[in-house]
Please model this.
Amino acid sequence: MGEIGTIVVIGAGQAGYWATRTLRDKGFEGRVVLIGEETHPPYERPPLSKAVLAGSESIESTYFATEEKLAEVGIELLKNRTVTSIDRDNRTVTLNSGDTVAYDRLMIATGTRVRTLQLPGSNEAPIHYLRDIDECLALQRELTEGRRLVVIGGGLIGLEIAATSRELGCEVTVLEYADRLMARVVGPEISDHFAQLHAGHGVAVHTGVRLDRFETDENGSRVICADGTAHPADIIVVGIGAIPNSELAEAAGLHVENGIKVDEYGRTSDDRIFAAGDVTNHFSPWLNRTLRMETWKNAQDQGAAVARVMLGDETPYSENPWGWSNQFGVNLQFLGLPGSWDGGIVRGDPDSGSFSVFYMDGTKLAGVIAVSAAKDVAVSRRLMSNAMDVDPAQLADPDVSLRDLLR
Model:
């Protein structure tokens, strides 16, 4: 396929940054161009719903590197730029400025965008979304003590915002369409625990909610539910999922199916173009199926792994899915993707504030969700990596050390 002179990375988020960083760490001496649509240098997003939103950490604390540091290692950062098209025949990308950049290898790491909520009254209601730094700062200015916040969406991002806002003194209500919280990523035992956690901190949690419209007049705004219930709101935050930014790839004729379809090496249907991060629907040798993940660790690790592939390392990206959240000082971690949330094995006492729920696939451990029990995750990772047989009774018995199961 020829010598690699220039590698272009579209998207300056977690995956894009770690791809360019890995290229340099692995000794690539060619040109590296990182194209980002924001005015900020590459940064991590998880703090935006927690410490940065709370004002306890600065925006600068999220930066992976300053522009100066990137320049020192020869990474050309093109900020405030979007790529409008990819010319696969001539191997160039066209920017919104009209300029073109040639590539020998291209990585698409365009991530996702928030799913918006369109209901009657949406345009007049004080609705916020949280995806980037500017949205974080805009929301932060609104979260003052005593203000009424309604969070639409009881997933990870919605609950993190709810917890942060409550700690800032806001009156917080969470409205969730599903019949339990965080239903996509945790089992019912964990959903119940976090519903109680939020309620214990004064958050009004409502599940199984169907929204009808927003009303805004001289008396303020309200979220109106299908059953006629009205929730007054000074601020509304919508967190109902994300959509992969795969339109650029689709317009270029690449295979797109719930994201950019790539193999375990991050290759697209064009052998000179790769993709990584939230935008990919990638094949996972670990799970033996395709999936699209929206976690910072997946973005970081896949970005680095695919960068190595671009340089000739034929090691597939195969990681056990892992994610985390912090709410009201409680740490939540989940490892693996079990096929069902049924039959969870509880270890520890939920009332103590520290416990785990394990999920089996036959005699093997398929997943674990831990609440303030990080050590359980560390041991589970080894049990799963070694495909060890596990006795469910021993998992459930807190008198049995999990480390003993490794022997």
Summary: The chain has ten helices and 26 strands. The CA atoms of residues 379 and 403 lie 6 Å apart.
